[in-house]
Structures are given as C-alpha cells and as structure tokens.
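>> Question from a student workshop board

For tomorrow's exercise we were told to take the sequence and the ligand below, predict the bound structure, and bring the output to class. My setup keeps failing. Could a helper post the expected result so I can at least see what it should look like? The ligand is protoporphyrin IX containing FE.
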Amino acid sequence: MEHLKEDKKTKLSEFPDAFEQARIEKGYGEIDDQNDPVTMLLRLKDVRKTAHNWKTFISGAEPGRIVVPSEVHIRDIRQIPFEVDPPEHKSYRDLVEPWFKRPLEEGYQKVLKTIIDELIDEVLTKDQFEVVGDFSLKLQSRALTTLLNVPYKESETWIDWGVHVFRSEDTDLDGGKANILFDYLDEKIEEASKNPGDDLYSLLLSAVVDGKKMTKEEVKGVMILTFAGGRDTVINAVTNSIAYFAEHPNSLKRIAQEPEITGRAVEELVRYFAPLTHMGRVVTEDTQVCEHAIKNDSRVSLCWASANRDSAVFENPNEVVLDRKVNPHVSFGFSTHNCLGATHARQILKILLTSLAEKVSDIEIKDAKENIEEWGEFNRKVGFKNITVSFN
Ligand code: HEM
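>> Workshop helper replied:
Here is what the output should look like for this input. Compare the format with yours to find the bug.
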C-alpha cells in the first residue's frame, strides 16, 4: 500500500469541482437522461432563484421525473412531501416537521452519542475495517431507528440489505431492488395500522391532512423518502468526513481543542462534499435561465454541488476552511423543499466529529476506491465505493 500512501496522500479526501468551467462560461450544462434531457443549473444565484420559484419549476410532476436519473419507469408512487407542490406541500410539511426536529432534544442526542461511541469503540478493536459497509451504513441504520422511533434491532435488517439496497451496483434503475424496501414498508405499515405505537408509521397513519385521513399509499410515500433520502447522503457524508480527517489529523485535533467550531466544521464538510449532487424540477411554461431558453414540460436540475463551489459567493471554494464563517451552502437544498432530515444529519455529524476527536488520535487509509458519478460531460466524485482504514 506504500504507493497509495505516497501518490494519494493528499488526494483521497479531495473532491474536485467538476462544474467550474461550465459554471463560469455558461452557467448551465446539458445532459441526456433516458431521452428526457436535463439542463443543470450551476450557479448559486440561479439554483436558489429556481428552487424558490415553485410555480414555474415544479416538483409535483409525474412521480420519479424530478429525480436524475429519472425513476418514472420504476415507480409510480409519489414521494411525499418531496413530489408535492404548495399549497398541499405545506400541509404535509406542517404534519411531519415537529417529528423531524426531535434531534434538537437532549435525550435524542444522548441516544445518538451512545450509538456513535459504541460503533467507534467496536472498530477501534479491529486492525482495519471498510468504512462504507462496516461503519457508515451501520451508523446510518442505527441512527435511523432513533428518527423513526422503532426498535434498535430493526437496524440489523437494514444493514443486511447492504449499501446498494435501492439500486443495483451497476445501474440506478433496478426496480427489483427497490421492491425489497417497498415490501418491507407494506409489512410495517400493516403492523402499525393493526397495532399503533409511538413510531413515525403510526403518527402518519393517524394523521389528517387538509381534512382527509392519510392513505396507506401516502404513508408509504413518506416512508420511502425517509429511507431513501437519508441513506446514501448520510453514508457519503460520514465516509467522506473520515477520509478527510485521515488526511488532516490536525483538523481533528483542532476540534478537540476548540469544540465550539464543531457546528461550523460540519457545515463546511457538508458544503465541500455535497452528498446529493443535484435534484430536478419540471418546467411549467417556456422560460429562460442564464439566457438559455427552456421549454415548457422540460427538465432542469438544481446542482447543489456546483453552487457550493461558486466563487462569486465562497472565498477559496475548493478548500475546506474548517471554521468558515459565512457559509450559505445549499447541500441541504433551499426554500420550499429544503431537507427535512437535515437536523438529524447535522446531529449525527456533530456527534461523530466530537467522538472521533475524543477517541481517535490517528486514522490511516489502507485502500480506497472512489465513487464517480457520470453526468454527461461531467464526472463528479461523490464519495467512495469502499475505503479501508485503521483507527488508532
Ligand atoms: C447529509 C445528508 C443529507 C443531504 C445532503 C440531503 C440533501 C437534501 C436535499 C438537497 C434536499 C432538497 C431536494 C429538493 O429541493 O428537491 C433534501 C430534501 C429532503 N430530504 Fe434530505 N438530505 C440528507 C439527509 C436526509 C435524511 C437523514 C433524511 C430523512 C431520514 C432526509 C429526508 C429528506 C426529505 C423528506 C426531503 C424532502 C423535503 C420536502 O420536499 O419538503 N434527508 N435533502
């Protein structure tokens, strides 16, 4: 592994900006996606403006169409509140928002701290371990039991599904894979409807939205999103943070010495890594973005990853400035559909950084395979397929 250490010493935790040239020259990029092309918006100002304009750029199109790659051929169930526009969107959001703010409670954070400390203690006993499958997936799954308020042992099932449960290794469009989750949710929704408890399923099953009781189909639409939206994103954020601290041990020491910067460090790592590259919208009238004509019923995407490196807004955008003071990143989206799971994700990362700083003095990368997304002319590194490290 010597060659890896030498050649890649400062590179593995580097996430190059794939969009710089196109963002500066044109402000947008064009990609094909199953014959339903997407115009990617690359500048922070345009991304925010477009995300805010939900009338012209809607989320409530045919289910699956705002996702890139499109999922229209593999699902017909609507994800809620993600594929719903105002004013209905607000009714759903008002219902679930207090539940998703529970991570602000002290008791919730204590549970997360126990989960994270136990996991770190577990891997500290090993000579080396693979971070994606043996750390990040476990952490994400175990933490999700707290968010859903379901028994801890459920996480064992989710971990057994493996990292690629909602799509196969080679293609994002494997409907068969998604059925594992859909069947699981049908079963859990049935159980909760017969035997209501104090979990998220039961809350949704008893909910009345705009005077109507939520259907099982709608409950499933919320749960799919909760499982899928918070899986790869959290796994990448956790994995990439560990890679970063392996190559920047002084940053971890700094967090130990200046715990007050931990919140800012989390924001900065999330800005830099942008775990979700982009998300689409469907256009409801002929319009223009960056002097580029966009036709009614075509697709655009809001490229969070590119917007976060916009030098018109961020000083030294390609550097991790651990205590960056002004950081209006859009990794968790912007405006109407901003991430519902952000409070949970932020707490996980905050506690992770604190516990790593307390317990781990040195992280060594032994081996790694990068995960590169291909979006037409753009190749973007989003994380790792696998990365083996040792903790000391
Ligand atoms: C670091 C981790 C995460 C990142 C980077 C992330 C990113 C995002 C982004 C960019 C959006 C906006 C989508 C849009 O505008 O169309 C979003 C929405 C959403 N996220 Fe996350 N997410 C993360 C974690 C989570 C978690 C843990 C959950 C839940 C378990 C979650 C659930 C959702 C939901 C339900 C929405 C839709 C909100 C709405 O439509 O009102 N996310 N997320």
